[in-house]
Amino acid sequence: MHSDRAAGSLIAALDIGGTKIAGALVDASGRLLVRALRPTPAKQDGETVMRAVGEVLGELRLDGGWRRVVAVGIGSAGPVDASRGTVSPVNVPGWRDFPLVERVARAADALPVVLTGDGVAMTAAEHWLGAARGYDNALCMVVSTGVGGGLVLGGALLPGPTGNAGHIGHISVDLDGDSCPCGSRGCVERLASGPNIVRRALENGWVPAGGAEPTAAAVAQSARAGDPVALASFDRAAQALAAGIAATATLVEVRVVVIGGGVAGAGDVLFGPLRAHLARYATLSFAAGIEVVPALLGTDAGLVGAAAAAAQALGLAEFSPEFALEG
Ligand SMILES: [Zn+2]
């Protein structure tokens, strides 16, 4: 079994964000065997960004494991359109409807290429090897500069036709609330993202302790020290997240909510009020009592998840959670 696995299939994973382009060869236990990393030249033209992707792939191809690669999985900052194979990441203006799948296939020996949004990829990772493992119905979320997410329903990842399903950050929870960059109003992200936690705290007179940078981590630190403005800003974020989670649980019945991303690093300052608000919003019998837990996979979730999502889309059973449980 062990020697089979050592010689088994690999998936080349790419995690493409506004600041870095990461790549890895991922085995059927979810281990990252080889890694490559480039900064994203996000302010450059599209071809320059693509060249950085090509360099990451080129580095992976130099490894002996490349001949065992059976597919390429890409998790990208959104919006993505998996049905057309294109990406238009908000933070990479050089890429608008950029044909990433076709370009990566060309650079990767015409292997099958599967594209998903980064929220869906993180969800695939947490379901495969993280905090949602063993759950058939889960909502996974990233609370960071933005708020993203994804769904596992009936034991399977639900990417949706374009790879964006579960994008809880742009559910409106404040009907006449502030306008959101997405075009809507009162979105979860507009209330709960790191920059909005900071903005609200600053607007209400919070000053970072010891002249620190005004970050969500600094607000969390003040909250832990009992600063009422910092506590209130986290409480409002928690309330927005709880309302979005309750709506999701009511629609599709999830049993667990996994929360990752930098803001989740605030710990009890976020999770405490989140659980309290959730008890108020998720009230129907089938939605009450949802578990809320921190994500387990950290910054590798994008790569692990890109591989997991590709494996599911292509029916590569050896990469499934059931096999990982045996391993
Ligand atoms: Zn929005």
From TrEMBL:
PANTHER family documented for this protein: N-ACETYLMANNOSAMINE KINASE, ROK (REPRESSOR, ORF, KINASE) FAMILY
Family note: Belongs to the ROK (NagC/XylR) family.
Protein name (Swiss-Prot/TrEMBL): ROK family protein
